[in-house]
Specification:
By secondary structure, this protein is an alpha/beta fold. The chain has 6 helices and 8 strands, in the order αβββαβαβαβαββα. The longest helix is centred in the C-terminal third of the chain and has 13 residues. Homotetramer.
Length: 173
């Protein structure tokens, strides 16, 4: 069983206090892991409108949100643009992407958080200072000692984590 990602959890708060970068997987984290495919091949996904305020609050508290997606898809770009956050796509190695982001920003692993949900997130989750999975994460990343949101991917998990980290960074815990 994973610990809950809550500011009142001392173990979570200790790690969250150091966070300056929150890297987010897209599919299954910012979406509910469903895809709608139209006859012409276009895709659409379901995201939560809760996320926007949480991402802005996190930024104001001093931690940068950033999307890292394994797949290249226009919906990722569109959502990142709407939320006014940066993203990188078509990333086969999320740890390498994180190393690059850390080098650009002068950060170390303890200052990085990652919110994931599946096997392609496992190495990144195992590398960062604050590793969190969504409530409905695939079983392959469960029971690995990662923190867990109470909400599912695409249903407010990002907002929940942003608020929890921001609360710690703002000193409101």
């Amino acid at each position: 069983m994973s610990d809950t990602a809550r500011p009142g959890n001392p173990s979570f708060a200790t790690k969250a206090a150091q966070v300056r970068l929150l890297a987010l997987d897209f599919d299954g984290v910012m979406t509910d892991n469903s895809v709608y495919v139209f006859e012409d091949g276009r895709e659409a996904v379901r995201c939560s409108r809760l996320e926007g305020y949480g991402l802005r609050r996190l930024s104001a508290a001093g931690a940068e949100p950033f999307i890292i997606s394994t797949e290249a898809n226009g919906v990722v770009t569109a959502r990142a643009n709407k939320l006014k956050i940066d993203c990188t796509q078509n990333v086969p190695d999320k740890v390498a992407a994180l190393i690059g982001l850390m080098a650009e920003r002068g950060l170390d692993w303890p200052q990085v958080a990652f919110l994931g949900n599946d096997i392609n997130d496992l190495e990144a989750l195992s590398s960062v200072g604050l590793a969190v999975i969504v409530a409905d994460a695939h079983e392959c990343v469960q029971n690995k000692g990662f923190f867990r949101t109470r909400r599912n991917g695409g249903d407010g998990a990002v907002r929940e984590l942003c608020d929890a980290i921001a609360e710690v960074l703002e000193g409101r815990m």
